[in-house]
Design brief:
This protein is mainly α. Helices cover 87% and strands 0% of the residues. Helix 1 runs antiparallel to helix 3, helix 2 packs across helix 4 and helix 4 runs antiparallel to helix 5. The model has no long low-confidence stretch (mean pLDDT 88).
Length: 146
């Protein structure tokens, strides 16, 4: 039981961290979307050009870091044997963050509005899954205390 409680508190902390990371990611993404002006091209070319745009480079790196944190949170939840419904939410969160990143890279290489729209929608879903996960986790933790 102690292992489960320890895992729950770590997951709760990581969910709070992801909320902050997604907030920062949103602001950096809006700035990058507004002011990044390179031509479309291959994803590798776009990534290389992002070095000339610090906010875009930060946005890309932060997206990668946010995915790593989300996936680690999912793995930690599996190891702590958290409720299946919570694990589904954590897994969907990781998938949304990864897919938003892929959409972002596709947007940068094609400049297609479809990809910037999907990136935004996936960000919203990830944010929602984090919120639902926090609510479910708090409920589980309060039941475990009583």
């Amino acid at each position: 039981m102690n292992h489960h409680g320890s895992g729950s508190s770590k997951v709760a902390l990581l969910l709070t961290l992801m909320t902050a990371l997604l907030g920062i990611q949103f602001v950096a993404g809006m700035y990058a979307n507004s002011f990044y002006g390179s031509e479309s091209g291959s994803i590798l070319t776009v990534l290389a050009q992002s070095a000339h745009y610090p906010v875009l480079a930060f946005h890309i790196l932060l997206g990668g870091f946010t995915f790593i944190v989300s996936f680690y949170t999912f793995i930690l939840g599996v190891a702590a044997r958290l409720r299946k419904s919570l694990m589904i939410l954590l897994g969907l969160n990781s998938i949304c963050i990864l897919t938003a990143g892929i959409s972002g890279l596709l947007y940068l290489s094609t400049r297609s509005a479809l990809y910037t729209f999907s990136m935004a929608m996936l960000w919203l879903l990830a944010f929602g899954f984090i919120g639902f996960s926090q609510t479910l986790l708090r409920s589980s933790m309060s039941k475990a205390k009583s």
